[in-house]
Design a protein that fits this description.
mainly alpha, flat, 60 residues, 3 helices, Fido-like_dom_sf
Length: 60
């Protein structure tokens, strides 16, 4: 899990260097927020599948 979080942080740093449109930035931020929430929930013992977790997180 820690490896995945490190990968997400590296991806975040790389994405700052890209020239993305506002819409692309918004989509990327949403995906990053989902991944971070999903993996932190996994660390806490949440057993939801990725699809179930996406529905729950997007419903918030």
């Amino acid at each position: 899990m820690r490896k995945k979080l490190r990968q997400l942080l590296k991806l975040d740093e790389k994405s700052k260097d890209l020239n993305l449109s506002p819409v692309e930035k918004r989509v990327l931020e949403g995906e990053q927020r989902f991944e971070a929430t999903y993996h932190s929930n996994k660390l806490e013992g949440n057993k939801l599948s990725k699809g179930e977790a996406k529905k729950a997180i997007l419903a918030e």
